[in-house]
Amino acid sequence: MQWLAQLTPPIRQYMIVTGNYWAFTLTDGALRMLVVLYFYGLGYSPLSIAMLFIFYELFGVITNLVGGWLGAKLGLNKTMNIGLFLQIVALSMLLVPADMLLVPWVMAAQAMSGVAKDLNKMSAKSAIKLLVPDDAQGQLYKWVAILTGSKNALKGVGFFLGGGLLSLLGFQGAVVSMACMLTVVWIISLILLNKELGKAKHKPKFTDILSKSRTINTLSAARMFLFGARDVWFVVALPVYLATVFNWEHWYVGGFMATWVIGYGIVQGFAPKLTGNSNTASPDGRHAMLWAMALAVTPAVIALSLYYQWHIQITLIAGLLVFGALFAINSSLHSFLIVSYADKNDVSLDVGFYYMANAMGRLIGTVLSGWVYQEHGLLACLVISTVFIIITAVISISLPRAQKIHPK
After folding, report:
1. Residue 395 — left, alpha, or beta (φ > 0 → left; ψ -120 to 50 → alpha)?
2. Residues 295/330, Cβ–Cβ less than 8 Å
3. Which terminus, N or C, of the chain has the lesser number of Cβ atoms within 10 Å?
4. Of 3.30.230.10, 3.40.50.300, 1.20.1250.20, 3.40.50.1370, which CATH number belongs to 2-396?
């Protein structure tokens, strides 16, 4: 702990926030893969598996909307630690005997996990805004990219961990190990995280949860369609397709998804170098539009490959890698823009509203992923993904082109 104490307070708090986010993300990714593979192994249909995540995504929408207000009122310290604790509770709920792991109970546990995840994410992303000076936009972009990229790399590790632990320890053994690890992190966070982090100087009204900024609203709409475009084929359709059409075992599915997300996270971390970034000229709305247009090409090409039955396995895997890299840049760019656009006095309110739209996109994508795949297959999921990304690009045309923005 001595080397930690020698760091400047902002860097020390940034490291603690990032560490919390890492630990949470590891369990979140592993739990998602555990649930998908475990219940698919029990004979559940793709749509039924998607339904298990409905409350996870729905409560994420609600949590982000209310969580920003709670963060401003109580402080980001409390909302982050509450998120860690609720994830421990959600994992504990899955430790009941196997015959009690019924759909309603698992959906309730997933709802708890959804609340926990979005409290943790909102707190982490909002905290960075408060740790970087207003005139250091380049530094802000780098810190956001590192946090987001490393988080997604660990989410990929979580996918692999979920598939591996399911094979080695079984469902309950995997859940116990994750709950114990997260409990240790939660205790450390209670001790080290700044108690006043993110608490607003004024008492925000509950009605302040709805953003009044056109810039924030526009970016939030773009984010909703962007993440809907990813999850409409990635959450349920892709893992089930790999397991049924390619006949991949749990280890292969979990390992491949893990590798994809790890690579995705690494690219996110390098996004500032790829999009062009400095303290005086950081990316703006024009970059968001152009990168979305580039992303739309990938699912369209994969869809054509499936339609014409042209080297499906090679095209799908290669297309996934390209899609992951381009989506990583889009996601990192959006994450920077919301933190940059947010009002520093109400940062958690703006960030919470934005990630509410993010959760809504995931909810729409998750439902469509199970239903559309079951009724029409992976090709239809890819077509919808392409349309959603085109909508994202069109919406992004309205985003401000100037970088120094104070929307409120």
Report:
1. alpha
2. yes
3. N
4. 1.20.1250.20
The full set of domain ranges for the chain reads 2-396
For 30, the token pair is 């592993």
Condensed to tens digits (0 to 9), the pLDDT of residues 209-264 reads 665 688 888 999 999 999 999 999 887 888 888 888 888 876 677 778 778 878 87
Q: What sign results for the dihedral spanned by CA atoms 66, 18, 171, 251?
A: positive
State how far the Cα of 117 lies from the Cα of 87, in Å rounded to an integer: 7
Spacing of C-alpha 79 from chain mean position: 17
Q: How far apart are CA 344 and CA 131, in angstroms?
A: 11
State the pLDDT at residue 92: 93
Write the DSSP assignment of 149-198 as a string of letters: HHHHHHHHHHHHHHHHHHHHHHHHHHHHHHHHHHHHHHHHHHHHS-TTTT
Answer yes or no: pTM beyond 0.70.
yes
Q: How many residues does the chain have?
A: 408
How many of the other CB atoms lie within 10 Å of CB of 12?
A: 17
For the chain, how many helices (H) and strands (E)?
15, 0
* Residue 21 pLDDT > 60: yes
CB 182 within 8 A of CB 356: no
Instruction: Supply the DSSP string of 14-28, one letter for each residue.
Output: HHHHHHHHHHHHHHH
* The pLDDT of residue 280: 52
